[in-house]
Amino acid sequence: MSMDEAHGGGMVSAILSSVVLLLLLGRTADAQRSLEFFDLLPEDPKLYDKMRPPKKDGQATVVYFHVTVMGLDSIDENSMTYAADIFFAQTWKDNRLRLPENMTSEYRLLEVDWLKNMWRPDSFFKNAKSVTFQTMTIPNHYLWLYKDKTILYMVKLTLKLSCAMNFLIYPHDTQECKLQMESLSHTTDEMIFQWDPDVPLVVDENIELPQLQLVKNYTADCTQVYSTGNFTCLEVVFVLKRRLGYYLFHTYVPTCLIVIMSWVSFWIKPEAAPARVTLGVTSLLTLSTQHAKSQASLPPVSYLKAVDAFMSVCTVFVFMALMEYCLVNIVLGDSDTPPKPAPPPPPPSSSGTDSAKLDKIFDIATKENAMLLSGRSQKSSGPPPGPTPAQRARMRALNIDRVSRVFFPFLFAVLNVTYWIMFAEYI
Hints:
It is a single chain. Helix content is 36%, strand content 25%. It is built from six helices and 14 strands. A hairpin with a 3-residue loop joins strand 6 and strand 7 (150-162). Helix 2 (245-262) runs antiparallel to helix 3, helix 2 packs parallel to helix 4 (306-332) and helix 3 (273-294) runs antiparallel to helix 4 (306-332). The relative contact order is 0.09. Residues 373-392 are annotated as: Disordered.
C-alpha cells in the first residue's frame, strides 16, 4: 500500500472518530441540560390552554385531594374561629403535557413557578378567615410530575377558619368544625373534586386541646348549587367535645358552695340582723361575680345556655335564703310594740272610804275562816301564767328557720340531681 493510500485511510478514521465523539458529547450535553418548561408543552404550544381543564373524552377533570392535619389550636368561642396547620395535596392528570426525554425515575421534581403557566385546580378554602404560607427555610411547597402525566402539588399552610358553634347545652356541648375546599370558577361539568381513594385524611394522634377533645374526624362532600352553577366542594369535619373537668372545678363546685354558705344564716339567731343580712348579700354578690366570670369567654347569645340555667337557679336559692330572713324578721317584729298601759282606777270618794275598808276586812276574815274550817292551805287556785306575745313570736321565727334548714337543702339536691340526669348523656 502506498503512502498516499495510508494517509487517506487515516484521515477517514479521524473524521469518523470525531463524528462519534461529537454525538456522544451532544447526548451528554442533552442529558446534563436543565429541564425547561417548554419541554413539557406539546410540539405546538398553541394547543395548550392553561385556562381550560384537561378534559379527556369530554369527561370532567377529576382532582384528588389529600389533607394531613398536624395541629389544631387557638379555638376561640367568642369569635367562633380555630386554627389548623395542614399539608394540602392536589393530584390531577394532564395528558396534554409531554414527558421529559431524560426522565428515568418514577417522578420528577418541577419548578413550582411553572404552575403560573399550567392549568391547575382553582380550589380555595371556603370558610377560611386567613391563610398563612410557610416560607421557612424555603417556601414549603413542591410540584411533582409522574410518568403517567399525573401532577402532584403539595403545600404547607396555617389556616384560621370559621366554625359555627351552638352553645345551647354549654358546657356539655359538642362542636363540629369544618375545613371546606371548593372550586372558584369551574362547575362540575368541567372539574370534580374527590378524596384520595387510598389515604384521604391523616390527623396527628398527638393533638391536645386545653378545653376540647378531638373525638372524631371524617371527610364529606359539601357540593352546593349556586345561581351560576353547581360547584364541587369537599370538607373535613372535626368533632370536638368539651372537657367538663375545668368547668366542674371552676364553676359548678364553687357555685354550690356559695349556695350552701348562704344557708348558714338559718343557724344564726333571729335577733342577729347584721350577721344574717351581711351573709345573704355577700353570697348573692359573690354568685353574681361567678356567673359573670363563666360568661366571659362566650359571645352574647340570645338563648339560654345550660350553665345559665344552673347559675340562675343557684341565684334564686341565695335570694330566697335572704328573703327567708325577711319573713323571720317580720314574724319576730309583730310583738315589738309595748303593750298599752291599763287605765288607772278612779280615785275613791271620801264618803265611802270607811265602809269600803270595813267590807274588805270582813271579806278577808270570811275567807280565812272558810279555809281553816276546810283544812286547806292558802294557795292560789288560778292557772299558771302563759308565754308572752314576744316569746310566741320568737318561737314562730325559730320554727321557720328549722323548716328552712331541711327544705332548702332538700330542694337544692332535687334540682341538682335533675340537672345532672338531664345532661348525663353529654358527659
